[in-house]
Amino acid sequence: xxxxxxxxxxxxxxxxxxxxxxxxxxxxxxxxxxxxxxxxxxxxxxxxxxxxxxxxxxxxxxxxxxxxxxxxxxxxxxxxxxxxxxxxxxxxxxxxxxxxxxxxxxxxxxxxxxxxxxxxxxxxxxxxxxxxxxxxxxxxxxxxxxxxxxxxxxxxxxxxxxxxxxxxxxxxxxxxxxxxxxxxxxxxxxxxxxxxxxxxxxxxxxxxxxxxxxxxxxxxxxxxxxxxxxxxxxxxxxxxxxxxxxxxxxxxxxxxxxxxxxxxxxxxxxxxxxxxxxxxxxxxxxxxxxxxxxxxxxxxxxxxxxxxxxxxxxxxxxxxxxxxxxxxxxxxxxxxxxxxxxxxxxxxxxxxxxxxxxxxxxxxxxxxxxxxxxxxxxxxxxxxxxxxxxxxxxxxxxxxxxxxxxxxxxxxxxxxxxxxxxxxxxxxxxxxxxxxxxxxxxxxxxxxxxxxxxxxxxxxxxxxxxxxxxxxxxxxxxxxxxxxxxxxxxxxxxxxxxxxxxxxxxxxxxxxxxxxxxxxxxxxxxxxxxxxxxxxxxxxxxxxxxxxxxxxxxxxxxxxxxxxxxxxxxxxxxxxxxxxxxxxxxxxxxxxxxxxxxxxxxxxxxxxxxxxxxxxxxxxxxxxxxxxxxxxxxxxxxxxxxxxxxxxxxxxxxxxxxxxxxxxxxxxxxxxxxxxxxxxxxxxxxxxxxxxxxxxxxxxxxxxxxxxxxxxxxxxxxxxxxxxxxxxxxxxxxxxxxxxxxxxxxxxxxxxxxxxxxxxxxxxxxxxxxxxxxxxxxxxxxxxxxxxxxxxxxxxxxxxxxxxxxxxxxxxxxxxxxxxxxxxxxxxxxxxxxxxxxxxxxxxxxxxxxxxxxxxxxxxxxxxxxxxxxxxxxxxxxxxxxxxxxxxxxxxxxxxxxxxxxxxxxxxxxxxxxxxxxxxxxxxxxxxxxxxxxxxxxxxxxxxxxxxxxxxxxxxxxxxxxxxxxxxxxxxxxxxxxxxxxxxxxxxxxxxxxxxxxxxxxxxxxxxxxxxxxxxxxxxxxxxxxxxxxxxxxxxxxxxxxxxxxxxxxxxxxxxxxxxxxxxxxxxxxxxxxxxxxxxxxxxxxxxxxxxxxxxxxxxxxxxxxxxxxxxxxxxxxxxxxxxxxxxxxxxxxxxxxxxxxxxxxxxxxxxxxxxxxxxxxxxxxxxxxxxxxxxxxxxxxxxxxxxxx
Length: 1190
Prior knowledge:
This protein is an alpha+beta fold and 1190 residues long. A hairpin with a 2-residue loop joins strand 25 and strand 26 (509-512). Residues 236-560 form the USP domain.
């Protein structure tokens, strides 16, 4: 709470409970003043003090002026002064009220504790609302600045006073001073050196000075407890995710630009396909609708997720202009071909003309271009008009800086920018952040910068511009930054209606604001109170400064003649019909999930698999229980998950599934699934107790760790189509003890049919799939299974089969045909795998088609155990070496074995490409693979074809050294691939050489990657460069190569320089030798190495180059030739300083060159000429990563 007069310490309201009497129903705020700061009636006797004498307590106007001055930023509604005569002090009740008085139509009274309130050594005074029965009206409040003065009834020069201010409400109806005065002090015979006490004759007077202030925003001194933005302003805010206040400000500005919101709503998002194409547009539609419809602040998480942002973008403040432009580009692209096409350009695009106009001849060169927003200088400008004048300022080109006009030669000319039109919505970005070259850092400009409520842009238009419609603009929004570059906060002042009041949008809170708060308070500049310069504290850096840290950084103006079009009424801004329905559906789903959580204790999860899931499964074990609940279209083998009441009986459960599968009653039988010791999950026994509940069954039979899993068996049919179950004598209840060694029990077990599941391994398709299940007698032999297999598969008799038992997920064993099933230890739920026996010619035929194929079930199970799914993505796309059948097919997933070597990898990928992707065959020897960086997703290392390497070593590697483990740098399930023009064997004989071709002097760099034989020379590289860059034959004899390191020339290369000897850490440049160097006279000229740097030679940048020095030539003449060589002209050349750098060393001290110097004499052959100027590509190395919206 702001304080006036003496500093006060706010204490907890809970101290009321420490009082000797019950104050539970009175919300009394307890405030303790520092008595040393309170003024008494005693004047300072120090003659050196120049303080004016203290006024008398009865001189009310003087007291107000001295101790309770008017607040400079607030307007007074009413003032009242009231004095209460206190008599019989010692006999008053512990809690006493003074008479009621009124101020601004509100009743007030003084609350007095003669014996103190929670402070027995002090007396307590408070100002309290005076409504009867202590019940003020609902939503009542008053903002009051007040002072309480306790003074002697006979001598007004003896007094104590304390001041405070407070927002009085129904909940906080009392505010004042718990330790107003020490009892011993006010009852002393001589109060503070005077001749009489303050409380005299058991009497005193207390005067209340109450000033009620106007509260145009409704939030003056508000504590914002239970504050409702929607109720108070009709608007809701946006929640801050971490550092997204800048995003929130921009989004609120766009939302309140009604025409923009209307255009966003017109983007088609009704279908799933539309939403997939326009994820960010759909998320923005949802956000805008929720800002309209929700009652509380809205989250932007869904929107930033659609942008593809990660935590880095969320917790780092980004550039608002860059974000605005990217967002506009994305939305404009989504609006093409829709009802909203061209809506954004019509709203935000203006036109400016850049011109060069000759002064003495009739010649003008101009270029007209669009702009979406304008960046205006703040530094050096006092107002918006100053910035526009600075923007269109004309530069005269004369003297050495003349303009070469086509057909007229060098001419004096005027160069400038002029506006041809302004958009209907004018976004002005104020350059509050500028790079300071002296500090080598970005700094914030807090200078005062004024902008008007109504702005006339006409003076800045071209004389020929269409001015039939006035270019008068009204201020619609002020986006504010408070703080500095490293710590700050963004918020916005915006008008929801064209002629409405400003609202302040500060993340999740929206409040009313005055015009002064929105405009004048955000000009920046110095802190001033009553015309006096003051210091203010930055709330984010805690540093003190005379400059305001809160100021406007973006202004939004709307054209006056288009206000109705840009700011239509809310009734015209209705969202597409599907949007409210979709969000209501999602809210209902959320509510359902909440209800489900509350009722979770009544339900249980039951996982159910059937024979259809087993037949669709192509893996080890019976059913992929881990995939339970997955989509059956993508995972047809996944068991289905049911949420059922725990009290459901087995009979009801079976009946429910019978209806779901549309079979007759009695055709389904549930089996309990159990975990075996070998890690498999198999059926154990049928669930044949119809009245047992599912909860009882789960507790009795199920494994707790795996959940309650059921295999639902469907019966065979007899001749009449009725369900037929194998004959089975009812045994004892599962789980009950069985007599060991009982002949009856053994006989029953040998007569009980065994349910056996069958899997077929298809060597041709390299596929393992479930076929179904059969019942066999335990006394049957393994070979007796063969007739059942032949019948199910429809094969002829005599087909040779191989039978295996799948003992566990990683092991299968061949069955002995003559052994009985009981001897082979076969039991309910066991799996028998079969395959056709392959002769040697059949094996060769399979190998011919699939060189890496498994020929036996044992080999295929080994593949399954070591199987890994790897996703392959083209390293460069599109590429001329691969033409796909359909778009998107170039990215695919292949099942590989960890034991596969490089050749097996190449064959499997080539086989997939040829079969499923490419329009033509792909040669495995032409494939090259690269691992993927697990952090960035970019290419990491090219995979080499080494003896003994396999997929495990390539993708998984050895994740440790000397016993220490670390995370893998490459992704374990992704690879890049390339289809090469030549085989890998041929490629290994070649070397990739990157050459930077300087096509236009040194101003344009074109990197070229050239593949040449390792035995090649520079002249062979030149031939490859000519082919790729399209160089004419007549310049080949005048092309030279040179190496550079750290942007400095290292050495010139001869044409016969070997490629294999090139240093990979050097940059290789190639350029056309300038004509003036064609004939170098060693006596009168020589070549010098040159480079660019900023501030010091170690900060080099740009392309280094050679330059010819001439004997006897002064540097004034040399500079002209350097200008032609580098392309740096005019004012840019004037900003360049030239220096001789001894040996070109990073830390050599530059020797600056003067106009009269002769470089031929000043420079030694090993010296370099340095050009000191700012690095225009600085953003490439000081920016982390460009902002992007997916």
